[in-house]
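Lab channel / #folding
Pinned by the channel admin:
"Please post every new chain as: sequence first, then the structure tokens as a reply. Keep commentary short and put observations after the output so the thread stays searchable."

First post following the new format, from NK:
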Amino acid sequence: MTEKLLRPMRTRPWYARWLIRLLGAAFAAGAHLLFLPWDLRNRSATPRTAGETIPVTGAGALLLALALVLLAAYFGHWDRLGWPLLLVAVPPAALMHVSLRAHPGPDAPYWPLDWGLFTLLIAAGVFVAAGVARAFRGEWAREDMSLTNPL
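Reply from TO:
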């Protein structure tokens, strides 16, 4: 089973490529929902404050970043470079946008700036992780060829 998962996407049938890509997008969205849960009961921490109580923790943000980097490295290594951005960065950015739009409040005018900043950070991290994993693809491919072709 693992040898099937660790093959370049171009060597797989089209249905397997799309299934793996859909699962990757689902994993990215699931990681966002798991590590940064969406509290539907947002409320002010104290009266007359703009800050709301949120269930986001530093550990949750770090675990989400780790999950997205691992997904980006997988897709960056085995697929074309544009796919990790679409599959790994877009689902969390879309969920964050929906979450921020669902809770209008006194600080709502700043949410588009927050969303843009965090989306840029997620996309940059995914792009760097995919690029680093892609750089290792050439070395591993040369090692595999040297093992199969001794001359």
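NK: The radius of gyration is 19 Å.
TO: also worth noting, DSSP finds five helices and no strands in the chain.
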